[in-house]
Specification:
Distance between the termini: 20 Å
Structural class: alpha/beta
Strand order of the largest sheet: 1-4-3-2
Radius of gyration: 16 Å
Mean pLDDT: 92
Largest sheet: 4 strands, mixed
CATH topology: 2,3-Dihydroxybiphenyl 1,2-Dioxygenase, domain 1
Low-confidence stretches: none
Helix content: 10-25%
Number of domains: 1
CATH architecture: Roll
CATH superfamily: 2,3-Dihydroxybiphenyl 1,2-Dioxygenase, domain 1
Order of helices and strands: EHEEEEHEEE
């Protein structure tokens, strides 16, 4: 197929052990907006994307073959320099696994800081040069 079937990510699903702890991390540390939908389901909104959250053992159908807390690796583009990201994380008591380090993002070089959410998911906070991702 020469033309991609899809052109962007709409949402993804994280399976978590403790929705309240995860909500606090994504809201208070990463600054994502918490949204509630379909009678109490939880999600975070980031720009035009959404992260739905499933409680481990109480996942909604359909679900992945092996829903597992801590099995994801996510990269979020940030508009702040890595030094500010690091200071922000330290100010909230978040341990940094690695970084800042230079990596290659989807649209070019990035400088990244790696942390873990309450379930151990690897969270990469990546800054493109000048705070903006280049256009495709």
């Amino acid at each position: 197929m020469s033309v991609p079937l899809s052109d962007r990510l709409d949402r993804l699903v994280l399976t978590v052990r403790d929705i309240a702890a995860t909500r606090a991390f994504y809201r208070d540390v990463l600054g994502m907006k918490v949204v509630t939908f379909d009678g109490g389901r939880t999600a975070w909104r980031l720009g035009s994307q959404k992260i739905n959250v499933h409680q481990a053992g109480g996942e909604f159908e359909p679900k992945t073959a092996r829903p597992t807390p801590g099995a994801a690796g996510l990269c979020f583009v940030v508009a702040r320099p890595p030094a500010e990201v690091t200071a922000h994380l330290h100010g909230r008591g978040v341990e940094i696994d690695e970084g800042p380090v230079v990596r290659l993002g989807a649209l070019g070089p990035i400088e990244s800081v790696y942390v873990r959410d309450p379930d151990g998911n690897l969270i990469e906070l990546a800054a493109y040069a000048n705070g903006r991702a280049p256009r495709e």
